[in-house]
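Example record

One chain of 314 residues, shown exactly as stored in the release files.
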Amino acid sequence: MLRRLPIFLIAAWAMLLAIGPACAAEPVFPKGMRIGLEPPSGLKLSTHFPGFEDPDRKVSISILQLQAMAYEEIERSIFAKNQAMLTNMKRESFPFQNGVGFLVTGDEDANGTKIHRWYLASTGLGPEFGDLAILIKVEVPDSASAIYSDAVIRKALASVTFRTPPVEEALALLPFKLKDLAGFRVMRVQPGNGAILIDGPGQDMVKSPYVIISIGRGVPENPDDRARFARELLAAAPLRDVTLTMAEAIRIDGRPGYETRATATGYDGKKLALVQWLRFGGGGFLRVIGAVHQDDWDKLFPRFREVRDGINAD
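Predicted structure tokens for this chain:
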């Protein structure tokens, strides 16, 4: 059922925070997000989820942005035969400002209240946004349907468009601050979770050195278990022939940490050198990974370390 999407989709909603002023008659983007639309009059950006809401009338438009690989799961949910929660359900192709998607509409009885629902899903959004999948969910109680009619909601969904968020806006949503990029450029930000830095003007992580910074929860308390934890994390990197070459406990910014190094085969067939730093604290960890072609390791390693030492995660 659409309202029971897999937990990783729901969790993605929780990682984002949407704030800022709303404007009518032009696309409005939740802070740090790539997806926006022209909200109907009366709907404002939510401070509780990425999207728009009219809290007095309990009307909401929730926006979920994911990597394109997640679209298969969304599509399975859309075309699932068992949609017992929805009545008067319809599925249709739906064009919008920057693409074409599937629109599912229907009604639901929620504790005696009739709710009108719309779900717009799409992917394959051109070369600039080809890595993006979207799911937009609209809820309108029957008591508000005279104001937020089907025509009004469809007009808003038809206005869905995309952008590249300003770097400063996206970085502001991270749970840490990057004080020193060491010459790297911000390539991508996952609000609330992490960022990818790349060396040079391109976007090709196969050819260019890069740094991945993220946070995680759940850390083994025993130092020996932390060593195993760090090694397993790096060994699971989505690269071929990952071979660990060094692992040791260190202190990072005065806190317990672990450094792990490895070699691997890149997707271009060339040898890569990798370093991973974990900084433990507060029941979680900060993870920094640097990757570069092995021939350039001596030149890039000091820069990887500058990035690591310039992260403020307090």
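Notes: The chain has six helices and 18 strands.
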